[in-house]
Structure formats: structure tokens, C-alpha cells
Design brief:
The complex is a heterodimer of chains A (about 70) and B (about 400).
Chain A: E1 5-11, H1 21-25, E2 30-32, E3 38-40, E4 44-46, H2 47-59, E5 65-67
Antiparallel strand pairs in A: 1-4, 1-5, 2-3
Chain B: E1 17-21, H1 25-36, E2 42-47, E3 90-94, E4 98-102, E5 107-110, E6 115-117, E7 120-123, E8 127-129, E9 138-139, H2 144-154, E10 160-163, H3 167-178, E11 183-186, H4 193-210, E12 214-216, E13 220-225, E14 232-236, E15 241-244, E16 246-249, E17 253-255, E18 272-273, E19 278-280, E20 283-285, E21 291-294, E22 297-299, H5 304-320, E23 332-337, E24 340-346, E25 355-360, E26 365-370, E27 378-382, H6 388-395
Parallel strand pairs in B: 1-2, 1-7, 2-3, 7-20, 9-16, 10-11, 10-16, 11-12, 18-21
Antiparallel strand pairs in B: 4-5, 5-6, 8-17, 13-14, 14-15, 19-20, 21-22, 23-24, 24-27, 25-26, 26-27
Helix pairs in contact in B: 1-5
The chains are: A alpha+beta (about 70), B alpha/beta (about 400).
């Protein structure tokens, strides 16, 4: 059931401070690993995941996430 | 998600028009949430600053970093951390202010004389820094222009006096030391204590002293411009006076609510929201402008996460009334100062000694936990990368049963 990709999620890793507010907003798309580094589990964003991805981008206090 | 649930709004007559006053994080989040909740009407955002939306917490952190350039006066440019644009299909008026509100007619008056009619209104007009004088040698740090101006001035390595020992004052002092300035910080009592409690405030203070910060324990009664000599005189509660070349005032902020003065929406001069962010029928508010009941008193907490959580709830309430969930979250904030990176979840009980859950406080790397009163405790990470969900769990120690 490959969904159509409508956007790509991008991370500016040097800027990421590992707060994890994005993980709270979109736990199905990303998580912080044991070292506190952000791992994007999904970067090809489907329509279904778009709102969660947008919310994750919005809550990042250092604007490290971007939808392109 | 299919955005086509109808608009069963008891507050907004029809899909109609919603106006958001403010395009900081609260206003942006409200706009996102309105669209997500199915609002398909006309969305207008009024932004006081002419800039695209940016991260305010970064102003006193990344935006003041990297100042130790080889030669004084040379400023390396640091880009603002711009936020994602407002929700699709919003009309944004940047560089305009709301100057009046008529809740009967449901109109917002703008500073250029324009009038915007609304069916629903989100008030997220934020706050502004307090200051003592209008001297060009006194700086505050609230907006992007402030950060750029201060950055420019710090590059000349002036002697800096910071007034106020909360997170903002300490972050500015830290950046100014880092830039090579002589820095004095004036604060009555121990800096940071109210925000992080005795133990962490002690850590911050000794880290600051180790890095050469001069601390003056006093409150400031007045700041005077010294016209002939230039600079400023800071009069202290202890009777003395400090001469200062550059002053940075970090003494809190005042809500931008003057434009609501004649609206009848203020309660004892304050914009008071309930647990759903509701002010009045068709009017909600969120972020730094809004006061909330908290126990016996009311409080206004100017934090990134407060603004976001309040805005989500307020936007939902504007569409669905109080059938949506009320606001409920533990506060979260972080600060970077004098080599310490602190992340705090919950409200730290100042006099309680925390348990060290991980790491070692003596090495300035630890995870701490406070047992709190009924509504939960607090947790902190010191120079420790820890995901906020985990920190939140630590701040909310074990309800009896799973």
C-alpha cells in the first residue's frame, strides 16, 4: 500500500538540540535514540502523515526540521 | 486526514473569517490547528514585526553565539532560526499592529486605519520587554531586531551590566563573557533560583563565577542616563551606584494588551483565559499575552511550550467550544549558560533537594528528579541529552497503579 509521497522531511542535524518535542508530536515519524540523537524513521511523507509532520516541524524550537 | 468534517461551531457562526493577532509561535500554532480541525474559511494573521516568524528562544542562545571573533568590532552574521510559514491559505499582514477591538461589532482596528471583521478571533499578541530608560546604551532582548543590535554592540567588547538574573539575563551575561566583555550582573538574591531551585541555581552561579561574571546582590531602584559622560548610572537598593557603559535589562516582560483596553475583555487589566483558552464568545487567546488561573492565583508564563499547548487548545475551542480537551501539560524550558545546558520539566520546588537519577552533579552532568506536591514533581537534565518524553515521565513520578 505504497502511499503517494507529498513531501520530504529534512533535518538540519547540526542545529538539532535533541529536545524531542517533535517526537512527542509525531512518534510514528521520528524518535530520539539512546544517545539523544534524532532519527527520522520516515522521510517520504504521505498525505496521511502530513499533518503529524507539519506539527513536528512547528514545535521544533530551533527550526531544525523542514518539509520540502 | 480528510479535512471535511463540518464546522459544528457554537462560537463561529459560519466557516467565515478568523483573525489571528500575532505571528509568533502561539499565533502560528493556532493557525495550523484551525486548519487541521477543518476550518476552511478565511484566515488572516496580523504580525507586529516586519520579519518572517522566527524562533524567539534562539535569540539569547544561538543568535548571541560565535562572538569571539579575532578582532573587536567584527561581527559574524548569524542567521535567525526562521520558522515554517503560517498554514496554507492564510493572509499575513506583517509589520502591522492591532490597535483596537470592538467585540460587539466583531472588528479589529489596525494601526494603518484598516478594519478587519471576524467571526472568530485569536489573541496572540505576545509581550514586550520591560526597560528602565530610552537610552541607546540600554538594551533589551525580545525580538530579532533586539538580538541583532545587541550582537553588533557586544562585538565592540564593551563593559556590560546585565540587570536581572533569570534565564534570559544569565544567557546574555554568558554570551557577553564568551564574547570577551567584562560582565556584571545585578540581581537580588541568587540568580536562577526561582526558575530552577537552590541546587541548580548554585551550580549556575558557581559556573558563572568560574567564567568571570561579577555578581552584585541588590535590586535596581533606578537607572539614569549620564548625559555629559555618556553611559548609565544604576542606582542600587543597597545605596550604591554602578556606572555602566552598556546595560542589558532582563527584568521580565509586559503583555501587549493595550489595544484591548476599551474592549471590555480585560479582567482587572488582564487578559484572562480559562482552561480552553476562551476569553469571551468568539474570542480565544494564547501565549505570552494571556493570564491563566493557577490554584488560588493567576499566572502568565512566557514559555515556548506553554504558547504551543495553549494555542492548540484555544484554536480547537474556537471551532468546537469547550467540548475539546482542556489544556493540560507540564511546563518545559531550557537554558544555555556558562557551559551548562539545562532542561527542566515541571515546576522545581526551590528548597527541595533533588534525587540524582543519572550522572553526577559534581561533574555537571546529571539527571535530577524532584518529588513535588500533588500535581507532580519536576525533573532536570544538566548537560545531558535526554528526550523530553523521558524527562516528562521523570517529572511525573509513578502514580500508584499503572
Amino acid at each position: 500500500m505504497a502511499a503517494t509521497v507529498v513531501a520530504h522531511l529534512e533535518l538540519d542535524r547540526p542545529r538539532c538540540e535533541g529536545h524531542g518535542l517533535c517526537e512527542e508530536a509525531a512518534p510514528d515519524l521520528m524518535h530520539l535514540d539512546d544517545e539523544g540523537e534524532l532519527v527520522l524513521d520516515v522521510t517520504d511523507i504521505s498525505e496521511q502523515d502530513l499533518e503529524a509532520a507539519r506539527t513536528a516541524v512547528r514545535v521544533c524550537p530551533v527550526a531544525a526540521l523542514k518539509l520540502a | 486526514m480528510t479535512a471535511m468534517h463540518p464546522l459544528p461551531s457554537p462560537r463561529v457562526g459560519a466557516p467565515g473569517r478568523i483573525v489571528i493577532v500575532g505571528h509568533g509561535i502561539a499565533g502560528l500554532t493556532a493557525g495550523d490547528t484551525l486548519r487541521r480541525e477543518g476550518f476552511s474559511g478565511e484566515l488572516t494573521v496580523i504580525g507586529q514585526e516586519p520579519h518572517d516568524p522566527y524562533s524567539r528562544p534562539a535569540l539569547s542562545k544561538a543568535m548571541l553565539g560565535d562572538l569571539s571573533t579575532p578582532s573587536p568590532g567584527v561581527v559574524t552574521e548569524v542567521e535567525a532560526q526562521y520558522l515554517a510559514a503560517p498554514s496554507a491559505d492564510a493572509t499575513v499582514h506583517a509589520g502591522r499592529s492591532a490597535v483596537g477591538l470592538d467585540p460587539e461589532a466583531r472588528t479589529v482596528l489596525l494601526d494603518d486605519g484598516g478594519v478587519l471583521a471576524y467571526d472568530g478571533l485569536v489573541i496572540a499578541s505576545g509581550a514586550r520587554a520591560r526597560c528602565f530608560t530610552d537610552s541607546p546604551d540600554e538594551y533589551t532582548l525580545r525580538g530579532l531586531d533586539d538580538a541583532r543590535a545587541l550582537r553588533q554592540r557586544l562585538a565592540d567588547r564593551p563593559a556590560v551590566t546585565v540587570i536581572g538574573g533569570g534565564p534570559l539575563g544569565m544567557e546574555v551575561a554568558s554570551a557577553a563573557r564568551e564574547a570577551g566583555c567584562e560582565v556584571t550582573l545585578v540581581h537580588r538574591g541568587q540568580p536562577m533560583r526561582r526558575h530552577v531551585g537552590d541546587v541548580l541555581a548554585g551550580l549556575c552561579t558557581s559556573a558563572a563565577r568560574d567564567r568571570g561574571l561579577h555578581l552584585v546582590d541588590a535590586s535596581v531602584t533606578r537607572v539614569r542616563r549620564d548625559a555629559p559622560a555618556g553611559g548609565l548610572d544604576i542606582e542600587l537598593s543597597t545605596g550604591g551606584t554602578l556606572r555602566a557603559e552598556v546595560v542589558v535589562s532582563a527584568i521580565g516582560d509586559d503583555p501587549n494588551d493595550e489595544w484591548l483596553a476599551d474592549s471590555g475583555l480585560l479582567t482587572d487589566g488582564r487578559l484572562l483565559i480559562d482552561d480552553w483558552g476562551v476569553v469571551a464568545p468568539g474570542v480565544v487567546a494564547a501565549g505570552d499575552v494571556a493570564w491563566r488561573r493557577s490554584g488560588p492565583g493567576i499566572q502568565r508564563r512566557a514559555l515556548w511550550t506553554d504558547a504551543i499547548e495553549q494555542a492548540k487548545v484555544a484554536a480547537a475551542a474556537l471551532l468546537h467550544g469547550r467540548s475539546a480537551s482542556p489544556v493540560s501539560y507540564a511546563p518545559y524550558f531550557w537554558t544555555e549558560q556558562f557551559g551548562l545546558n539545562l532542561r527542566i520539566c515541571g515546576e522545581v520546588p526551590a528548597e527541595v533537594t533533588p534525587t540524582v537519577v543519572d550522572g553526577d552533579l559534581a561533574e555537571s552532568r546529571a539527571v535530577l528528579q524532584w518529588e513535588g506536591p500533588t500535581q507532580g514533581g519536576a525533573a532536570a537534565a544538566v548537560n545531558f541529552r535526554i528526550p523530553i518524553p523521558k524527562l516528562r515521565r521523570l517529572a511525573r513520578p509513578a502514580p500508584a497503579a499503572a
